[in-house]
């Protein structure tokens, strides 16, 4: 059990509660009570956890630093292998990780041929997107990343931006 004494709570609307409180928590907050010994001179602020929506998983120490800096959640959009994501998610000393895992790209794309993404991340056409989606769900992905590029701007195969409009309805945003 951890206790924070003599704090102002700041909510998502950025409003500050003028009342000083004591907060107790373990994995979740268990109590919020009026401060036992209110002291405006020593009061601190309790804010919601911060989210970094673009990280690259790699060194564990960077994630430890992120957590110690107030980041409670990170979002990564292209880590492989999936086992690396699983390893970091199992570590209780790291922030929560939301992951796309391997991003969808064209077979033979730069991501697959030069960056080491698995061949399974290659999506050949809209019908193949269902296989890709099933593969990502089976491997614990929280979200899906599709790398669409202008095929005329690269010598490597690429998914065009128009591909999204032909994707299965399960992959389209409304």
Q: Walk across the major sheet and give the strand order.
A: 3-2-1-4
- The helix/strand series, from N terminus to C terminus, equals EEEEEHEHEHHH
Global shape: elongated
Overall number of domains: 2
Strand content: 15-25%
Structural class: alpha/beta
Low-confidence blocks of residues: none
Total of helices: 5
Overall CATH class of the largest domain:
Alpha Beta
CATH topology-level name of the largest domain: TIM Barrel
Say how many strands there are.
Answer: 7
| Overall pLDDT score | 86
Give the % helix.
10-25%
Query: Any guess at the CATH architecture of the largest domain?
Result: Alpha-Beta Barrel
Radius of gyration based on Cα positions: 22 Å
**Full CATH superfamily name of the largest domain:** Metal-dependent hydrolases
Distance between the termini: 44 Å
The main β sheet shows up as: 4 strands, mixed
């Amino acid at each position: 059990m951890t206790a924070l004494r003599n704090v102002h709570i700041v909510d998502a609307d950025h409003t500050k509660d003028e009342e000083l409180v004591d907060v107790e928590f373990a994995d979740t907050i268990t109590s919020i009570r009026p401060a036992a010994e209110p002291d405006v001179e020593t009061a601190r602020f309790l804010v919601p956890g911060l989210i970094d929506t673009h990280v690259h998983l790699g060194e564990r120490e960077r994630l430890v630093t992120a957590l110690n800096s107030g980041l409670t959640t990170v979002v990564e959009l292209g880590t492989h292998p999936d086992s690396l994501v699983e390893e970091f998610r199992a570590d209780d000393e790291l922030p929560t990780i939301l992951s796309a895992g391997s991003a969808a790209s064209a077979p033979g794309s730069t991501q697959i041929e030069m960056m080491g993404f698995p061949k399974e991340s290659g999506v050949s056409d809209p019908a193949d997107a269902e296989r890709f989606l099933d593969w990502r769900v089976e491997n614990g992905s929280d979200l899906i990343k599709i790398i669409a590029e202008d095929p005329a701007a690269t010598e490597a195969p690429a998914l065009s931006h128009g591909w999204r409009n032909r994707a299965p309805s399960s992959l389209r945003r409304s």
